[in-house]
């Protein structure tokens, strides 16, 4: 909602009709930042859902909240200079990677239980609980 309101504000602020506003760099930055966030959202939802369902819900939820905060930082950084958005982008990639690895660990554990009867769920829970606070390090 915040991103959409910013796009609407810039759209009203700029003179012209429609989304084609040549020469309006402020509007272009807001619109592109909104599009980038919108394109990354389905991937985020998929890995968040898989990590929470297949591995552990608490670290996945924590990583999800951190990702939303980082996307906010990316969006606000994108409104300034493009170099200000780079830390938010890289931090977001790291959180997506963490959620993806949680998903892979959950899938591997499922197949290890199914084929070999070995359950590593306790080890995976301990590792994800220890690693999830490290996501706070920029």
TrEMBL record:
<comment type="function">
    <text>Required for leukotriene biosynthesis by ALOX5 (5-lipoxygenase). Anchors ALOX5 to the membrane. Binds arachidonic acid, and could play an essential role in the transfer of arachidonic acid to ALOX5. Binds to MK-886, a compound that blocks the biosynthesis of leukotrienes.</text>
</comment>
<dbReference type="GO" id="GO:0004364">
    <property type="term" value="F:glutathione transferase activity"/>
</dbReference>
<dbReference type="GO" id="GO:0004602">
    <property type="term" value="F:glutathione peroxidase activity"/>
</dbReference>
<keyword id="KW-1133">Transmembrane helix</keyword>
<keyword id="KW-0812">Transmembrane</keyword>
<feature type="transmembrane region" description="Helical">
    <location>
        <begin position="46"/>
        <end position="70"/>
    </location>
</feature>
<dbReference type="InterPro" id="IPR050997">
    <property type="entry name" value="MAPEG"/>
</dbReference>
<keyword id="KW-0256">Endoplasmic reticulum</keyword>
<dbReference type="Pfam" id="PF01124">
    <property type="entry name" value="MAPEG"/>
</dbReference>
<comment type="subunit">
    <text>Homotrimer. Interacts with LTC4S and ALOX5.</text>
</comment>
<feature type="transmembrane region" description="Helical">
    <location>
        <begin position="91"/>
        <end position="114"/>
    </location>
</feature>
<dbReference type="GO" id="GO:0005789">
    <property type="term" value="C:endoplasmic reticulum membrane"/>
</dbReference>
<keyword id="KW-0539">Nucleus</keyword>
<keyword id="KW-0472">Membrane</keyword>
<dbReference type="GO" id="GO:0004464">
    <property type="term" value="F:leukotriene-C4 synthase activity"/>
</dbReference>
<dbReference type="InterPro" id="IPR023352">
    <property type="entry name" value="MAPEG-like_dom_sf"/>
</dbReference>
<keyword id="KW-0434">Leukotriene biosynthesis</keyword>
<dbReference type="GO" id="GO:0008047">
    <property type="term" value="F:enzyme activator activity"/>
</dbReference>
<dbReference type="InterPro" id="IPR001129">
    <property type="entry name" value="Membr-assoc_MAPEG"/>
</dbReference>
<dbReference type="InterPro" id="IPR001446">
    <property type="entry name" value="5_LipOase_AP"/>
</dbReference>
<dbReference type="GO" id="GO:0031965">
    <property type="term" value="C:nuclear membrane"/>
</dbReference>
<protein>
    <recommendedName>
        <fullName>Arachidonate 5-lipoxygenase-activating protein</fullName>
    </recommendedName>
</protein>
<dbReference type="GO" id="GO:0019370">
    <property type="term" value="P:leukotriene biosynthetic process"/>
</dbReference>
